[in-house]
Every structure is written in C-alpha cells, then in structure tokens.
Amino acid sequence: MVDLSVLEGKLVLHVEGADKIFALKSTLEIPLEHIAGIRADPDVARGWWHGFRMPGTQIPGVITAGTFYLHEQRVFWDVHHPEKTVAIELHDERYNELIVEVADPQAAVEMVRGAISRG
C-alpha cells in the first residue's frame, strides 16, 4: 500500500511496509504540474498480465509491485487489493503512470485533484 500526501507542490508517495522490498522503492515525488490525471480504477489492477517486470515482483492475485513495461510505457505498481487502486497519469516524468493501492481511493482522488486545482 502507498500513503499519498501533498507537500511543497509535489505529490509524495510513501511505499509502506514490506512493499518497499517488493517494489524496490520507498518514496516517489512527483511535481503536481506533471500529473495529467488521477482516477480510482479497480479494473486496471485486475487480471494477471501487467507487463514485463524490470525490476519488480508479481504474484498473480497476491501482489504487483515495482516497475513494469507495457505498450512501450513505464508503469510503477504497488497493489495487493485491486478494489483500492488509483491510477495516476503523468507527463514529463520517468514513469508514464503510477498504479497504486491506497487506503481510500475516492479520498485520494479528491485530495490530488484539489491540490492540482489550487496549484
């Protein structure tokens, strides 16, 4: 799971617990102006194929975490429970998209959209 916060014009994603090991990341910082969109999207995390792992962990139905390449795009994943997934589309960043599990997807979407509109 990932904890999202907004600090100093950036979206900060803190990877929690053992997921730091599985994802090989502990924190990501994205300038708000590089966020093209955010949505709650449980369907994107369902299924077993999320792309080629480089590096990362994938145990279908259990965890997808780390960097994956799909359709010539680099995507960061950290999901155990698809129903708690948000997808964050980016531009001008290392990743094209972040697909992460959060405690409350709707609250996360509202928080990020609010920060972008104020930004």
Features:
119 residues, alpha+beta, six-stranded mixed sheet, 3 helices
Can you describe this structure in just a few lines?
The chain is about 20% helix and about 50% strand. The protein has 3 helices and 9 strands.
In words, what does this structure look like?
- The structure is a single chain.
- The chain is of the alpha+beta class.
- The protein has one domain.
- Helix content is 19%, strand content 48%.
- The chain contains 3 helices and 9 strands.
- The strands form 2 sheets. Strands 4-8-9-7-6-5 form a 6-stranded mixed sheet. A 3-stranded antiparallel sheet has the order 1-2-3.
- A hairpin with a 6-residue loop joins strand 8 (85-90) and strand 9 (97-101).
- The protein is globular, with a radius of gyration of 13 Å.
- The model has no long low-confidence stretch (mean pLDDT 94).
Major sheet details: 6 strands, mixed
Tell me the total number of β-strands: 9
Order of helices and strands: EEHEEHEEEEEH
Q: What structural category arises from helix and sheet content?
A: alpha+beta
* Count of domains: 1
Give helix % range: 10-25%
Helix tally equals: 3
Q: Taking all residues together, what is the mean pLDDT? A: 94
Q: What shape does the CA trace take?
A: globular
Rg, Å, rounded: 13 Å
Oligomerization status of the protein chains: single chain
Low-confidence stretches: none
Q: Looking across the biggest beta sheet, what order are the strands in?
A: 4-8-9-7-6-5
Strand content: over 45%
